[in-house]
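Q: Got a minute? One more chain.
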Amino acid sequence: MGTPEGGGPLRSDERQEASGQMETTSRVGAQTPAGEGEQPLASARRAVDGYLLASFPWYGLDEAFTGPRWLMQVGTSADGAVEHGSVGHGDEPSVRSDSTEDTERFAVVVTVAANPSRRSADGTGLLEATSVSSAAWLAGVGLLSFTWPGQMDHTLRDDWLDQQTETAWVLADDLGGPDWSSLSLPVDGVPTPFHYRESEFGWVLAGSTQQGVHLGAYGRGMSAYGLAFSAIRDIEAYA
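A: Always. Here it is, folded:
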């Protein structure tokens, strides 16, 4: 997975390629409907299996959050290794438009494996190391996936998403810039620094843990300032 940190922002064609790779290698979680004739239990089992293949711990909100929890999706590399994934808390978000009342309260936590620079699966090149910027970009794009300018023609949505995705790359490459502020939140009970920003669509934050993973998060309707994160003991409880 290409990341914007370490070598500067990727070119537009590189961003599109990286984005396409993540889309084609994602394993959809709880939001994917069961196939025809498939029992819901079997669908949930299939969804959680992707998370169980990860070699790193998953993170979510700590036990102080008592609302619904649900799986989203994992992202894999070309050789099938799980590299990142998301879990949700609160209301399962729908696409927000300017014409609908914004009553949803949700927070999504993104876990990204901390990988060094490494060779691609076919051995022909190097994959950039993952970083806090990786988590910031994934969280920023995740928030965009539930955002829809209500007055925009559907034919313009792709152009809008391309523009906003490019902005997310630029912001993730400049975590020390004026668009970000500092925020300290508990991770496994330890105060941990995060980069934080707000937009008209919601909020995004990103940081790292002592367990060798990077964390991103995004949400709406729930204050980021009151969140705390912890390693998930039983990912199947989210299924």
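A: The longest strand covers residues 190-199.
Q: Perfect, thanks.
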